Amino acid sequence: MASKTTLNAKNLETLGTARLAELLIEISTGSAVAKRRLRLELAGAQSPKEAGREVAKRLSSIARARSFVNWKNRKPLVTDLESQLRAIKEQIAPDDPAEGLALLWRFIQVATPVFERCDDSSGIVIEVFHDACALLCEIALAAGTPPEVLADAAIDALRDNGYGQYDGLIAILTPALGEVGLTHLKQRIEAIAATPVPVPPKGEWEAVGYGSGGTTYAHEMEERSRQSMVGMALKDIADAMGDVDAFIAQYDPKTRKVPKIAAEIAARLLAADRAEDALGFIERAEVDNDRWVPREWQDTRLEVLEALDRKDEAQAFRWSCFESTLNSEYLRAFLKRLPDFEDIDAEERSMDHAAAHTRVTPALGFFLDWPSPDRAARLLIDRHAEINGDHYEFLVPAAEALSERHPLAATLALRAMINFTLTKARSKRYGYAAQHLAECASLASRIEDYGKFEPHVIYVARLKQEHGRKSGFWSQVEGQ
User: DSSP 3-state assignment of 211?
Assistant: First the structure.
């Protein structure tokens, strides 16, 4: 049973409304965010219309603001935006969906002025606007918005999608647009496509700071933006209407041979029960097997081969994908389809192939993922000279996974990271390297035979001889 002093709604109710009101005033003093939240709640308690006025006023204020928002003061902005969005969704739209929809459009329009002054490297601000965008269809349906009106609003939004706030808008609105709205939207987009951006009079752009030649540059930028919007919108409309051929038509013949694009086209053809056509696009893709091959193309090719009942060819391709990528998913799918007992020999063959792979890091990642700790340990010992200590994303998990049964291999993984950090003088990693050295010391007592490798004491002595002047590292070591 929770204590009577535990902070929960039931315990706070015992304080009474008067005392709670006093506490809220006290807690909100000096906090603009808290005060705005309380005002918004008070407005909502009066009426949805009053809450709408409060939200509209706040959105105007956010749009007019000019102070830069960095990572330090980004959280209050996000909290403020989330409060306005919550009010639209919970206090306004349920009683007045038309007003809620109007405010929702206005909310997302605030994205442009916000991102002009905001550092959103973490992506948490754009997520708020994506959450708002996701609500549009639900509220538009509740408001009974005519499909053509909704389509026109979508056009205006797509023209102002400079920061990706409206990404996925057409797919989101499809249930509310229906066939009528999608047809109207397509017609308007096609009209935009047929109307190039007019060239402004000479000197117009120079007057606002573009300088000599600015007219041509500005016109090119606007024309590119128009073409990009049109192309993306027509592809999204084609998807919404289930028109695969219209989707394909948005790519020129050369672009259709790009593996990733070919995979997108083939996936849609496959969904439309046109597997033979899908295979044609897959096979015509210009794939360079000596370089990186997109995973989408490989996976789609497998799906197409299976759909055409070309199972032997699909199996051969799975093995080929595994050989080139060492992706364990391909191997598992390959082994699953083998007859009984054949999978044992095939798995052993795959382990040998991975151990001999030209790059040791993917091989280590495969053995850790499979998992095969014995093979991972052997790889680290046999090919220790090839280990790149910069790949801590592989080496840290390897050291953790192998420390119990394979302390020497774990030590070699740790040493690789230490050596890289010190040799490259990566001072920001000195703290981690010091921790790794302490872990090596802990593992040393369980290593009975170092073989051709230096015992821990000798290794530390060599580090002091070669990197003794890196005081930042050694001070961290002493602090362990």
Answer: coil
pLDDT band for position 223 (50/70/90)?
confident
pLDDT at 52: 86
pTM of the model: 0.79
pLDDT digits (tens, 9 = 90+) for 93-144: 999 999 999 999 999 999 999 999 998 988 999 999 999 999 999 999 999 9
Reply yes or no on whether the pLDDT at 22 is more than 80: no
The Cα–Cα gap between 347 and 328 comes to: 11
**Cα separation of the two ends of the chain:** 42
- In whole angstroms, give the CA distance from residue 92 to residue 106: 14
Burial 23-54 (b: 16+ CB within 10 A, else e): eeeeebeeeeeeebbbebeebbeeebebbbeb
Distance CA 319, CA 278 (A): 22
**What's the CA gap between 397 and 416, in Å, rounded?**
13
What angle (nearest 5°) sits at the alpha carbon of residue 341, between those of residues 370 and 324? 40
- Which amino acid is residue 23, in one-letter code? L
Helix axes 74-87, 48-64, angle to 10 degrees: 150
How much is the CA Rg of the chain, to the nearest whole Å?
Answer: 31
What pLDDT is stored for residue 208 in this prediction? 46
Provide CB contacts within 8 A for 81, sequence distance 6+. 62, 107, 110, 114, 125, 128, 129
Cross-strand bridge partners of residue 69:
118
Q: In whole angstroms, what separates CA 309 from the centre of its chain?
A: 35
- Split at pLDDT 50, 70, 90, the class of 34 is low
Query: Residue 370 — φ and ψ, nearest 5°?
Result: -60, -50
Residues in Cβ contact with 195 at an 8 Å cutoff, skipping those fewer than 6 apart: none
pLDDT in tens, 264-281: 999 999 999 999 999 999
Output the pLDDT for position 207: 47
- Beta carbons of 265 and 248 less than 8 angstroms apart: yes
Q: Give which of 378, 454, 388, 432 is closest to 410, Cα–Cα.
A: 378
